[in-house]
Amino acid sequence: MKLILLGAPGSGKGTLAEIIGRRCHIPTISTGNILRAAMKDGSPVGLRAREYVDGGKLVPDEIIIGIVRERLAGDDCKAGYILDGMPRTIPQAEALERAGIEIDLALSLAMPDEAIVKRMAGRRVCRDCGASYHIVNIPPKAEGVCDKCGGALSARGDDAPEIIRERLAVYHKETEPLEDFYRKRGRLRTVDGQRTLEETTRAVTEALGL
Ligand code: AMP
Asked: Is 189 a catalytic residue?
């Protein structure tokens, strides 16, 4: 299965990608996680990406396309994968098509901006492994500590309210048009992202026929 998760930042793409990936035994490819790891390592890609990520802007398409093309060539992607946070622009979606990548489904998580802003305030991520939590909806077992690797949890810098507003504006302008792109290809399914994680997971697994 080749699946794309669409939806505004904070709509739950990463959390759902993990759940579906575990169930289907396919990897999740999160461009956001790859970029954050590159920034932490200080790699050339990380150094180039930092100013965009920190400002809530999109990293240039050619950087993203390069990262994803390399990652999809991995052996673990042969049986399928979930793309979380890519494509985010029409040129990125076109680049996937040009590379001969046929997507089975683009699943869009619908959520109004006000609900996103509220949810983002409670998001915490592990500084070491990138795992994502929410202080109310998906709390870690011990406050401030990652269940998976014991790393410290903190709010993402780009989840600050003024950066979230910029990211939402970018989402509406650059990423939302992808819904039409995949609708025209008969590949779009929309699920309400505002419900509890359990309810959204059920709706998503039904939409995927799992
Ligand atoms: P995310 O973790 O998906 O919310 O991504 C965090 C940030 O990484 C975004 O605000 C962008 O700056 C950058 N980013 C991630 N994926 C992409 C992409 N496909 N295209 C451009 N920028 C991206």
From this structure: no
Our answer on whether the CB atom of 53 is closer than 6 Å to any ligand 1 atom is yes
Distance 144 CA to ligand 1 centre (A): 24
Angle at 160 between CA 150 and CA 47, to 5 degrees: 75
Give the pLDDT of residue 116.
Answer: 94
Tens-digit pLDDT profile for residues 159-190: 999 999 999 999 999 999 999 999 999 999 99
How far does residue 164's CA lie from ligand 1's centre (Å)?
12
- Predicted TM-score (pTM) above 0.90: yes
Q: Are strands 188-192 and 105-110 parallel, antiparallel or unpaired?
A: parallel
Query: What pLDDT score does 194 carry?
Result: 92
Positions in the chain whose pLDDT score sits under 50: none
Cβ of 123 closer than 6 Å to ligand 1, yes or no, is: no
How many angstroms separate the alpha carbon of residue 30 from the centre of ligand 1? 9
User: Which one of 36, 71, 88, 124 is the catalytic residue?
Assistant: 88
Q: Return d(Cα 20, Cα 25) in angstroms, integer.
A: 8
13 counts as catalytic? yes
